[in-house]
Amino acid sequence: MPDNLCGVTLMKVVALLAWKGGVGKSTLTINLAAAAIEDGHKVGIIDLDPQSSLSEWSDRREAEQPFVSDAKPRAVAQIVEAGRGLGLDLMLIDTPPNATDEVEAALAVADAVVIPTGVALFDLKAVTRTVRAATQANKPTCVVLNRVGNRSDREAARIRRELNHIGMPILRSVIHDLKVFPRSADAGQTAIEVEPEGKGALDVRAVWKHVSKQASLRAKTRTRKNASEIV
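and the corresponding structure tokens:
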């Protein structure tokens, strides 16, 4: 099937959901956007968080992409259609925690769902509720262990096995807790842009490889590194 039909781009929409705050969802959103841009895609972000952290990040940014729209839930469908009209390939939606209206609006238009979580018990308890909401909406879903400390890799592997055992769609790839993520975000950038060959960039590309497959979005250009650490 062609990428463009009757002048309208077959844009994919990926929603990032997490009922619990503090799991690095917004940071993961901008870094996945950078990985998609590296693959040659035109990318937009809908920022549904009332704190508008991604909109503020965009204001600090010199690069043209990704295009960031600060929005209310009722405007999501309209912005998605506008993105298609502009020829975007991917729209990422960042949602606030514990926000039913925003989550419902994102799920209504999403082609796939990404659920970041920390490795703490409180984080993991919230994952079940989020996965349930995504699966009830019949959306392809993956769970990403985020902000994993270097000494927590063994713990992350154990958690991944346990979540797999109960049927959670958990990725083998994880995002480590690295200083490059907050440092680059503060500068209006991403890990891929600041340290393109660094560990953070490799982590992001590994997760993006799975997310792009899940959303049926093919790379337009070759990435720097191939990543295969996915289930």
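(Above: one complete record from the training split.) The chain has one domain: 4-212.
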